[in-house]
Write a structure and sequence with these properties.
This protein is mainly α and 74 residues long. It is 47% helix and 0% strand.
Length: 74
């Protein structure tokens, strides 16, 4: 699991998960360690992506005691 923001989600998915071309560290890690045919992608549109990302990281960390598996920092 990862929680992140993207200005163009379609491009992010194509570059980092499908095409094996991206330099995004979470994308590389997910491709290497997970069965990407079973990935579920959920998203929300917001006018404050950085704040929402931080809130989601905090909620996850409060619940599980750590950041999501493929998230390095908040």
């Amino acid at each position: 699991m990862t929680i992140g923001k993207a200005s163009d989600l379609r491009r992010r998915i194509k570059e980092h998960l499908l095409r094996d071309k991206g330099e995004h560290s979470a994308g590389k890690e997910i491709r290497a360690k997970e069965n990407i045919s079973k990935i579920v992608i959920r998203w929300a549109v917001t006018d404050r992506p950085a704040a929402v990302e931080e809130e989601l990281h905090k909620k996850y960390q409060d619940k599980f005691g750590k950041l999501p598996k493929h998230t390095k920092h908040t």
